[in-house]
Amino acid sequence: IHRQQSRPTLPPAKLQKLERLSLYYNLPEAAIICTKCGFALSPKRTSEHPGKKHGIARSARHSLKPLLSSLNLPDPDTLVPRPNGSRRHPYLPVQEGSSCKRCGLHCASWNVLADHLRAEHRDKLKRTARKNSRQHWLRDHTQQGVLFQS
């Protein structure tokens, strides 16, 4: 997981170029967010995304790849999750889901959360399964109805 590091600031002209391509340079969690799609892009795919997903001409994307390379962005999956109580991010959608009572992981998918519990908290699940019915193990270890951005 990448902790926040000192990241380069961009001059206004480069920020405007990103904006024209519907891209947003997010700080302090260094990522490029597609403002149309509402999610952070993988550094390997960021330069292709505006063309493939939104039909933006190659000429408009000229010099995007070197600009993005200069930022040395981490993969979004390695970023530290946004802290609970964070101000609403203008370019990330609000999702409804559940969170793990053990570690606070937020997730919109029950299947992903169930896999997380089995992989990360198997020992705790086994102890409580002996005490309680196995029927409600997922509900017993999650908080439902959580709103979050990621």
From TrEMBL:
Q: What is the name attached to this protein's record?
A: C2H2-type domain-containing protein
Question: Region entry Disordered: which residue ranges?
Answer: 67-89
| Ranges annotated as biased composition (Low complexity) | 67-79
The species this protein belongs to is Fusarium oxysporum f. sp. cubense (strain race 4) (Panama disease fungus)
Q: Where is the C2H2-type domain?
A: 100-121
Any Pfam family hit: OrsD
